[in-house]
Write a structure and sequence with these properties.
two-stranded antiparallel sheet, five-stranded mixed sheet, about 10% strand, alpha+beta
């Protein structure tokens, strides 16, 4: 039986995600995404990431056919991790493990945080996929609430389950707020961001939400409203079009389920009213 599609109304100011997409096609695509659960959207994103990795491996095999396996693995790691590739790092896995993407790292990290009683929430691209437009993502961004004395225990646990941890001295000293970790077997990265001591950050931890990821594990994600506000803040630093596209994608999928009163009140306190209003118009919500 054919699915009955709704009639779409294009509101003034509505903006498709890309210039070569008509508003009608854009509205249809996001209506279809609305029918999926966050877990289903994460599964779509994971499949997209894994297919991209398979394609990259095949291309590398053809391009660097003369390299021995350790050299090939190192070349792949350098391409995927770029400037974040640890010195002398050679992945220990194989093509079966290399296709695993950063979303799957959440299943490894969740029990570590739980065992050490470290509150956390996933943000960034992975959370944006769960709430909005499905896309590829390079790494996993996680905000953790941890006091400096417990950092050594966390780092030890991470290293024991196969992570290379960089930036330790800078984080322990307070010069940096992010632990960059690389899963040695799968060539997947995560940024562990030390939470700020602020009222807004405490509120984000209170509002975090639990969802299942494709592997079946249950993890914590930032709320969609807080993710929108985060991405609007990040965009102010670098004028990133990716952040703006993520914001529109979340707004288009979540729609009326969002707490607009909370969004607008926090946007006012954060100086983001103009950006939020523009995003709401371009997403067709006002």
């Amino acid at each position: 039986m054919a699915q009955i599609l709704p009639k779409f109304t294009i509101k003034p100011g509505y903006r498709p995600q890309s210039q070569d997409t008509t508003p009608e096609v854009d509205l249809l695509g996001f209506w279809l995404l609305k029918q999926r659960t966050p877990q289903q959207r994460l599964l779509m994103g994971s499949s997209m990431n894994q297919n991209a990795r398979r394609f990259a491996i095949n291309c590398f095999r053809q391009r660097f056919f003369d390299l021995k396996e350790p050299e090939f693995a190192r070349k792949l790691a350098q391409a995927w991790l770029g400037e974040d590739c640890p010195q002398h790092y050679i992945p220990t896995g194989d093509e079966m493990t290399w296709v695993q993407d950063s979303i799957s790292l959440a299943e490894i990290l969740h029990p570590i945080f739980e065992s050490l009683n470290i509150p956390y929430y996933i943000t960034g691209g992975v959370a944006a996929i769960a709430y909005g437009e499905v896309r590829t993502t390079r790494d996993l961004d996680i905000v953790i609430s941890i006091i400096p004395q417990y950092l050594s225990a966390l780092i030890l646990e991470l290293e024991q389950v196969g992570f290379y941890v960089s930036g330790v001295d800078d984080v322990v000293s307070g010069r940096m707020q992010t632990l960059q970790i690389t899963h040695i077997e799968t060539i997947s990265r995560a940024d562990l961001i030390i939470a700020e001591d602020s009222e807004f950050e405490s509120l984000k931890f209170e509002r975090r939400q639990q969802y299942q990821i494709p592997t079946g594990a249950t993890v914590f994600l930032a709320s969609p409203e807080d993710l929108i506000l985060n991405k609007l803040q990040w965009r102010n630093f670098n004028q990133s079009q990716k952040q703006w596209r993520d914001v529109l994608g979340i707004l288009k999928v979540q729609g009326d389920s969002l707490d607009k009163i909370y969004l607008k009140n926090k946007a006012e306190s954060l100086g983001l009213v103009e950006d939020l209003n523009r995003a709401l118009i371009e997403a067709g919500l006002e």
